[in-house]
Write a structure and sequence with these properties.
Length: 505
């Protein structure tokens, strides 16, 4: 189950009036809006707020929606209305039901007053606030009320990830910086309802129509005011908030169970590979040509090889049980070469000849979208570094957790040219071997354990050298058993992947 889409669906139903039933006894939102207008007039008379020159209200007439402005002009806004809402709801502008302003500008050279902790965009997240990195700035006494957040206020990012919001639920007060909007609803408007509405239009990217700027976009106070919002009656707002929270708690349980199942599948795959590489996944066939015959043939066909190989007939020194027909060899015996790639200056346009780089290995596969590119006039001079079908790439210089990660090169087109770049090793298997078997071996716990003693750790980086990889001792199954092992692994993994995909659907 795609829980991200499920969360979005819950929010979508909520703001359309389809998550909770309407109660005909609820005071309609039109009455609530009228009460807010009266309250605002009182505050204006008491000089606690200023009259908004862009004030407007939206009403329905003859099955259409109209907006009346402070200067008396009226405009039909049917094209702005995205969907129909229940009879007891009303469309309104966010600015007509809330007070909002940005915070204090940080200017160390000019700011005076007392030091106060303040919130900036980096402290605001959809899940709440990150308060471990709070800083302080000087604020004069006359500005404290304007730049202070109290419990129930909604804070909205103006810049950065503009539109990202959180409701302040702490008893303590705190100040806020100028790239943050403080949104304080008028009477009987729930901050959490506005929060959920903003989250919905953020996820659906509908909020982008209100943003301005090229590259880094911002959500100005004027734009925030103009956001069109479907307003339910107060009691229904409260019911919607409760229902969303309850639904989200169910979604969290689903996510936890999905996480457990995915971990079980991951562990199962690891165990399957462990059994495969130890000769316990498929039965041995006494009619298979023994692996030592295969290794002797490889030596005969590659007499110029400078690699030192171990005697394949002497298995007495090897601690792991060697299945019937399998044989011991060094890893380097199985490849034409193991080598690093070539350094080529790459462009930023993502055009030209593709070149592998560290990020190219992604989730156990070669990700063509994570390759570098270079404009090369004479590509033939790099022909020695063209990747071939069944080449295996491995990360040998990376963060410790990623050293040894590998992927097999498959599905190359006839004329396709991909250059093997630096910081990934290329293993080119000898033709007599099943390359997919070797690829699965590299993903197995057995291989991962075998390379650990040779990994050298530095600051934020680890590495393993080609010499150590060449000399690793491995046990090799007969060629026919390699094929049977690959088929069995792929068969089981397909079934396991179907289980994982079924819970994501």
């Amino acid at each position: 189950m795609d829980t991200k889409k499920l969360r979005q669906k819950i929010l979508d139903l909520a703001i359309r009036g389809k998550l909770v039933p309407q109660d005909p006894n609820d005071e309609p939102a039109s009455v609530l809006i009228e009460k807010i207008r009266v309250e605002k007039e009182r505050l204006i008379k008491e000089k606690k707020i200023k009259r908004d020159k862009n004030e407007s209200y939206i009403y329905r007439s003859d099955k259409s929606y109209y907006e009346k402005f402070a200067d008396g002009t009226v405009k039909c806004i049917d094209q702005e209305i995205p969907f129909e809402i229940p009879e007891s709801w009303e469309w309104c502008r966010l600015g007509s039901i809330t007070q909002h302003n940005t915070g204090k500008t940080l200017d160390k050279g000019r700011n005076t007053g007392e030091l106060f902790e303040y919130i900036t965009t980096s402290n605001i997240y959809w899940e709440g606030f990150e308060l471990n990195t709070l800083k302080k700035m000087l604020i004069e006494e006359s500005g404290i009320d304007r730049f202070t957040v109290r419990k129930g206020d909604l804070l909205v990012c103006e810049g950065g990830d503009s539109g990202r919001s959180a409701v302040w639920e702490y008893e303590r007060t705190i100040c806020f910086q100028n790239h943050v909007h403080r949104v304080r609803p008028y009477l009987n408007i729930e901050s959490w309802y506005i929060y959920f509405f903003l989250h919905k239009i953020y996820l659906s990217k509908e909020i982008d129509q209100y943003k301005k700027g090229v590259g880094i976009q911002s959500l100005s106070g004027e734009a925030l005011s103009s956001i069109l919002l479907p307003l339910p009656p107060t009691k229904e707002q409260q019911q919607i908030i409760l229902e969303i929270n309850q639904c989200n708690s169910f979604v969290e349980i689903i996510e936890q169970n999905q996480g457990r199942l995915q971990q079980i599948v991951k562990n199962t795959k690891s165990k399957i590979l462990d059994l495969a590489i130890k000769g316990k996944l498929v039965p041995q066939d006494p009619n298979d040509e023994p692996a030592f015959v295969l290794l002797e043939r490889i030596k005969a066909e590659h007499p110029d090889s400078k690699k030192k190989t171990k005697k394949t007939s002497d298995n007495s020194h090897y601690t792991m049980e060697v299945p019937q027909g399998w044989s011991i060899c060094m890893l380097g015996d199985l490849f034409k070469f193991i080598r690093n790639g070539i350094t080529i200056s790459q462009n930023k346009e993502m055009k030209g000849i593709p070149i592998t780089r560290i990020e190219t290995i992604s989730n156990g596969m070669i990700n063509r979208e994570k390759m570098g590119y270079a404009n090369i006039i004479d590509i033939n001079k790099y022909s020695d570094y063209y990747l071939k079908e069944n080449d295996i790439l491995m990360s040998h210089i990376n963060s410790p957790i990623h050293v040894g990660k590998s992927a097999i090169c498959e599905y190359l087109q006839n004329e396709e040219k991909i250059i093997h770049g630096m910081n990934l090793l290329c293993f080119r298997p000898i033709e007599n071997l099943n390359a997919k078997y070797i690829s699965w071996y590299f993903k197995s716990p057995v291989f991962n354990e075998s390379i650990q003693p040779y990994i050298k750790n530095a600051v934020n980086q680890a590495s393993i050298n080609i010499s150590n990889l060449n000399s690793l001792i491995v046990i090799l199954p007969p060629f026919n058993e390699q094929k049977r092992i690959v088929l069995k692994i792929e068969e089981i993994f397909v079934s396991l992947d179907k289980i994982v995909n079924s819970i994501k659907a």
